[in-house]
Amino acid sequence: MTTAKPIGDPFTEHRRLLFGTAYRLLGSVADAEDVLQDAWLAWNKADRSDVGNARAYLVRTVTNLSLNRLTSARATRESYVGPWLPEPLLTEPDRAAEETESADTVSTAMLVVLETLSPVERAVFVLREVFGFSHAEIAGFVDRPEASVRQVAHRAREHVRARRPRFDDDPERRRVLTERFMEAAAGGDINAVMELLAPDVTCWSDGGGKVTAARRPLHGPDHVARWLVGTLAKPVSAGITLETATVNGELGVLAVLGGRPISVVTFDLLDGRIQNLRLQANPDKLIGLRRG
Predict the structure, then answer these.
(1) How far is CA 291 from the centre of its chain?
(2) Rounded to whole angstroms, how far apart are CA atoms 214 and 99?
(3) What stretch of H or E contains 77?
(4) Are 30 and 287 spatial neighbours (Cβ–Cβ below 8 Å)?
């Protein structure tokens, strides 16, 4: 006599897909986790006899919960203090890479570009280009005609293609430059930092009004290097150590104090130099950097 193998819970089975969808739509680890909690509650209240395709049902639920939250979040971001950057996510193999599919599509640069799309464009792009859902499936998720979804998908794809920065993807080159950048910044060597920055480098820092950060983007190697080195030289920064970590699918630099990350630097690499540098220091946005 054989015993039937128990069927796993579809929510648990598809959690990586659901989290990856919510995170890419919202750019926030905390909001994505909240959406998954709400989706789990809705799933447990649902009449399973009416659910023909659990995966599609759950993705639709998460998509619509995320769209509702994204629409309200945009109004809040209009009054945000300083530049708004997405929440970073630690994507080392032992942690968040297990929570997201296609880590190369979750880079900080990509999330910043996705932020320029409308909520519906963002949803259609993520569902189509990242997770490969058909236009017909997406039409069911967002309650729009398939023809309309096709138009939105084309518009969003062209928008992203035009705005996505060109960058080097050689991991060894990135590792070497990251280590040189970290050493120069920690050593207070402004000239060495400047040598690693592209002539048209821009630095965005997100403190959210909670910690010290530049209220406007900084432009040029001199301004960026002096601000970074000056920040590390302040008394409040005493005891900070810098270490490399894979963040949003790319090697970046964590600033650690007392065993916990207090900021993270991610950047685009072009022609062997740092092109766009993004520093996230808002303590409310560092949940995705916890290692345990």
Answers:
(1) 17
(2) 32
(3) helix 54-77
(4) yes
- Residue 257's contacts (CB-CB under 8 Å, 6 or more residues apart) are 239, 240, 241
For domain 171-289, the question of CATH label 3.10.129.10 is answered with: no
And the tokens for 263? 């900021």
What are the residues facing 255 on neighbouring strands? 242, 263
- Count the residues in the chain: 292
Cα separation, 245 vs 92, in Å, equals 7
Q: What is the CA radius of gyration of the chain?
A: 21
Q: Do domains 10-163 and 171-289 have the same CATH topology?
A: no
C-alpha to C-alpha distance for 257 and 239, rounded to whole angstroms: 6
pLDDT (tens place) for every residue of the chain, 292 residues total: 444 434 578 999 999 999 999 999 999 999 999 999 999 999 999 888 788 899 999 999 999 999 999 888 777 777 888 899 999 999 865 444 444 445 557 889 899 999 999 999 999 999 999 999 999 999 999 999 999 999 999 999 999 998 887 777 788 999 999 999 999 999 999 999 999 999 999 999 999 989 888 999 999 999 999 999 999 999 888 899 999 999 998 999 999 999 999 999 999 998 899 999 999 999 999 988 876 5
- Give the CA distances from residue 219 to residues 20, 30, 151, 233, in Å, rounded to whole numbers and listed in that order: 32, 30, 36, 20
Q: Per CATH, is 10-163 categorized as 1.20.140? A: yes
3-state secondary structure of 238: coil
Q: Which residues pair with 253 in a beta bridge?
A: 244, 265
Domain boundaries, the chain: 10-163, 171-289
Q: Which residues contact 217 (CB under 8 A, 6 or more apart)?
A: 83, 202, 203, 204
